Amino acid sequence: xxxxxxxxxxxxxxxxxxxxxxxxxxxxxxxxxxxxxxxxxxxxxxxxxxxxxxxxxxxxxxxxxxxxxxxxxxxxxxxxxxxxxxxxxxxxxxxxxxxxxxxxxxxxxxx
Amino acid sequence: xxxxxxxxxxxxxxxxxxxxxxxxxxxxxxxxxxxxxxxxxxxxxxxxxxxxxxxxxxxxxxxxxxxxxxxxxxxxxxxxxxxxxxxxxxxxxxxxxxxxxxxxxxxxxxxx
Lengths: 111, 112
What we know:
The structure holds 2 protein chains of 2 kinds.
Chain A: E1 3-7, E2 10-14, E3 19-26, E4 32-38, E5 45-50, E6 56-59, E7 62-66, E8 70-75, E9 84-91, E10 99-101, E11 105-110
Parallel strand pairs in A: 2-11
Antiparallel strand pairs in A: 1-3, 3-8, 4-5, 4-9, 6-7, 7-8, 9-10, 9-11
Chain B: E1 4-7, E2 10-13, E3 19-25, E4 31-37, E5 44-51, E6 54-57, E7 64-70, E8 73-78, E9 87-94, E10 102-103, E11 107-111
């Protein structure tokens, strides 16, 4: 059974304090690893897709990396507006087994 | 995502009543999905569509049906709502079955 596990469940950082969020996965024949940001009361907002081990993608203060067993979302010098829940999802192929989501990491950046 | 909307955004209904949620997209994406999101769970797939009139079941499809008569509209129906179907429902779309999915703003459904 495909599984995606995110850690920690919650993380509180000071503004400017860099850290990483972890996403470990057991998804058969992984065809893509997705990161989303979700603000309270809103739908998930797409951030990154990673397709192969060693791949990295960056956007502003965020960088996502992928190995054969896990993905990391690195947050450099975060600001309060980076506070959100970050979701990771693995894609094993099309159809009903398409996207398996983790439960998310709730990130709070304190000024 | 600005190209995908959901209606209604909030709904309160009573056990046993039928409920239909609507998802509308303007991006001409082939694939559309319905998920539910509950505390302590990740997003879980209810049903998905891979084209007009082409749909299939997801992980938690019991008690739900869907229809897609036009590319832009994907309807989720609860034939007889139960309290266990109280949740936040998200619709999503994608160009292919392996591209990123783009989500709507969600519908908060409460079944009393």
